[in-house]
Every structure is written in C-alpha cells, then in structure tokens.
Design goal:
By secondary structure, the protein is mainly β. It has two domains: 1-67 and 373-425, no CATH class; 68-368 and 426-450, Neuraminidase. The protein has strands at 5-12, 15-23, 46-47, 54-57, 61-67, 83-90, 96-102, 126-133, 139-149, 152-157, 163-167, 185-188, 209-214, 221-225, 235-240, 254-260, 276-278, 281-284, 311-317, 320-325, 341-346, 351-358, 374-376, 382-385, 393-397, 403-409, 424-429, 435-440, 445-450. The strands form six sheets. Strands 1, 2, 17, 19, 20, 21 and 22 form a seven-stranded antiparallel beta sheet that branches. A six-stranded antiparallel beta sheet has the order 3-4-26-25-24-23, with no helix packed on it. Strand 3 (46-47) and strand 4 form a beta hairpin. The radius of gyration is 20 Å and the shape is globular.
C-alpha cells in the first residue's frame, strides 16, 4: 500500500485551525466537477460579519432563509429547532426544494408541529420541514413534511427525488412519553408530503440511524449507525424487495445485513490510509426490529461483527459508497484514537478501503470531532461540517489536499467550550451548483450562501 501524508494550515480570518490528515484525497471526489472551484488556498480568509452571524470569504454573501421560532409560512406553527441533515431538490421553473431535519428529542423547546396525516407519534417532537425557493432564492413556502418522529439527525436523498430521514435513537414506546417505538427511517416527499405520510420503513432496521446512501444502479441502501457506547455501531446494507421502485417502494420490505471485515472487530484499529480489505462479508441481521436486543448487541455468530465508533456521514460517489467515522477514543473503548476516518466501499469488488484519517494530536482549534456531515462540492472537492467545541466551521478540502475555511459561525467565536448551538449541519448545494445551503444546529438557522463557487 502507499499513502501520502500532509499537514495543512487552514487560516480562518484572525484565527487559525490546523488539521493533520493523510490519505489519497482524489478518491473522495469521484464524480465531482473539476473545471472550476477554489484556488490552491481556498477562497481566502474569512471576513468578520458585522451582523455577527456568519463569517465568509470576500465575494461571498449569505441570506437567512429560516430561523427557529419564526412562524412557518404555512401557518402550521413555529419553525422547529435543532436544524440538522438537509438535501436540495430541483423543482419546476428553476425552483429549489429544501427538505430539512429537526433533531428534536422529547425535551425540545420548539417541536415540529403535529399535522394530521403527517404525524407518526403524537409524543414525538422531531420531523422534517420543507422550504420552497424560487429561481432567485426567495422563500415561497415553508411547511411540515413529517412530524411525530424523534431525533431526526441526517438521512439521504433517493434516486427518485425523495428524502430518507433517519431517527438517531433506539427509544421504545413507554419511554420519554413516546407512544410508539422509534429508531426508524421514514421516506419524505418534499413536493407532496401526503404521498409518503408518516410510515416507518421497519425492514431497514431499528437502531440509532445517522445517514443513508442509495446505490443508483442496484437500489441497495447503505446505512450508518451513530453509536458511541460500547459495543459501537455497525455499517449496514438494505436489499429492497423492489429496488429502484420509486416513491413508497421501500415499504415492500427487504433484507438487512451488517458489514463484517474478517479479523477486524473495530475499524478504529486501522490507521494506515490505503489499507484495503477484499471480499468483505455481509451478515444477515438476526432481528432487524431489535425487539429484545439492540442490533449491535445481537449474536452474529462465532466470527463476530465489525464495529466502529460514531459512524455518521454517508454518500454515493462514482461506483462507491463513502462513510465517515467522526472520531474514536481509546478512553471510550475504541481500539485506537483518531479524529475522523473516511471509508470507501466498492460493491462490485466487495472491497473496503480506508481513504483518509484526520488527526489526532495536531489540531489547534478543533477538538477532534471532525468530520461529520459531508457533501461533494460542484466545483470539485469536499465540504465538511465541523462538529466540536468553540468556533464552528464549514471546511472545504481540495483535490490537492488543501483544507480551507468556507464559513464560521460568528456567534460561537469566544463562546464557552462546546456550545451546543455552534455546530453546522446539512451542507448541500443547489442542483445548479450556484448556492450552498447549510444549517446552524441551534438556534436553528438555515443559510443560503452565494459567491464565486
């Protein structure tokens, strides 16, 4: 195996952050454009925002599309809090539709309003909302897309234009006041939410879901489990009975399997970028509903199963699925420490490769929980949402390995350690690539960022 090692200083206005990583960056960008994009050092230093919301490079500007506590334009109630995963879909006449998760727990102060026909569990405070934008970026509408779910963290788009929203919880009916079991994936049609309603896709498993990615050729759905208690989470694939069948087809069921890398019980133990495992195995999940035992605790046979701490972002690129372990710490039971891994799985070869490793030990401003939400940038490269303490950033990573700051939550600068509201999430681009959309977790805020992308 071979690997290049880099240490990059990303300068962000008056502050600076250093991220050390190693790996073959070109592998991350399969299918992204190369004709334009940032220069060698990104788009330049961040300029402090006089309004104290979002610091951006010179030549970029932001618009606040929606903020927690404001009135929903549909009249259904207030904009819910805890903005998280999000995707942008093309509408008619140049319009863009944003479907946005709300990671609300039972204690959430601003829940997703319960709407008849769109509410799964009346006691659940999570769900999704949809924003409709015209071709100029003006918000035309904002409404509830699903309600009564819990801890809607991330998810992923389907090839047929719907959103799969994921509950990052395993709570059962009777706990936290819930009347139904939680820990499921739900399909959401942002254009017409009543087409999908509030139906859990139970065959896809009940666990602390984070994100999903759909293979556009086979229809197989890959799922990450965000667990930071031992034993850690698993990486899954769901084999649908009706692959690529369109809206509602995932309700037909299918088979759920978990990844086993022979001889590797914990992915954090793999430290060398470029490490490759051929002919990995997929093991049937004994009880996808986790009726008695959480899936990661179930008996997968004498050869066991492969775990990883905090599996988060997941996306499809080229002929592969990429997934992220945002961090691992020996102190919490991992086999080794890291500040983030990105893995690539090639279904046609049954091959798993560690593409990149972040840190540890060289991070100045970041605490190490990075990366979290990620997306491919239309101009080439990767966008990474930081998830940690102190000032929070969206970082770009170029094909050449340069890490640069794209945005900083100005409200978090100088804030107490680990302000929960500082995290960015849901970074995504408009179908034409001209606008980046991103959420601030809390106070929940959705931004549109335009400039020389």
């Amino acid at each position: 195996m071979s690997a290049t090692r880099r240490q990059i200083l990303a300068r962000a206005g008056t502050g600076a952050a250093a991220i050390a990583f190693s790996g073959a960056l070109s592998e991350l960008f399969t299918g992204s454009a190369t004709a334009s994009g940032p220069g060698r050092h990104g788009y330049g230093p961040l300029v402090p925002d006089p309004d104290g919301l979002l610091d951006l490079p010179k030549g970029f500007r932001y618009t606040v599309l929606s903020r927690e506590g404001d009135r929903l334009r549909s009249g259904e109630g207030r904009v819910p809090g805890n903005h998280d995963g999000m995707a942008a879909f093309a509408g008619r006449h140049g319009r863009v539709r944003l479907v946005r998760n709300h990671e609300n727990r039972a204690t959430a102060a601003v829940p997703v309003p319960a709407v008849p026909g769109l509410t799964y569990d009346p006691a659940g405070k999570g769900g999704c909302t949809t924003l409709e934008l015209d071709s100029r970026g003006t918000v035309l509408g904002e409404r509830v897309a699903i309600a009564g779910t819990a801890v809607n963290c991330a998810g992923g788009p389907t090839p047929w234009g719907t959103w799969l929203t994921c509950e990052e919880t395993e709570e059962r009916a009777g706990t936290s006041g819930y009347t139904k079991d939680h820990g499921f994936v739900f399909e959401v049609d942002g254009a017409d939410p009543r087409r999908t309603g509030a139906v859990p896709l139970t065959a896809m498993g009940r666990f602390a879901h984070e994100a999903v990615a759909v293979d556009p050729t086979s229809g197989v759905v890959y799922e990450t489990e965000d667990a930071f208690d031992r034993p850690f989470g698993l990486f899954y694939r769901f084999l649908p009975e009706k692959p690529l069948g369109g809206t509602g087809s995932l309700r037909a069921g299918g088979a759920l399997e978990a990844l086993r890398v022979p001889g590797v019980p914990d992915l954090s133990a793999v430290q060398e970028p470029g490490s490759t495992f051929d002919r990995v195995e997929w093991v049937p999940v004994p009880d996808p509903q986790a009726v008695r035992t959480p899936i990661r605790l179930q008996d997968f046979g004498p050869r066991g199963i492969t775990h990883a701490q905090k599996l988060e972002g997941c996306y499809w690129g080229g002929r592969s699925v990429y997934f992220v372990s945002s961090f691992a710490r020996r102190a919490e039971g991992s086999a080794a420490d890291h500040f983030g891994q990105v893995w690539r799985y090639e279904p046609h070869r049954r091959r798993l490769t560690l593409v990149i490793v972040f840190g540890p030990g060289t991070d100045v401003q970041l605490p190490g929980e990075s990366p979290d939400n990620i997306c491919l940038a239309p101009g080439g490269g990767l966008m990474v949402c930081e998830d940690g303490g102190g000032a929070q950033h969206v970082y770009g990573v170029t094909r050449g390995g340069e890490v640069y700051a794209v945005a900083r939550n100005a409200q978090a600068v100088g804030a107490p350690e680990d302000p929960e509201w500082g995290e960015f999430a849901g970074v995504t681009f408009a179908p034409d690539g001209a606008t980046m959309y991103v959420n601030c977790y809390t106070p929940g805020t959705t931004f549109a960022v335009t400039g020389p992308w």
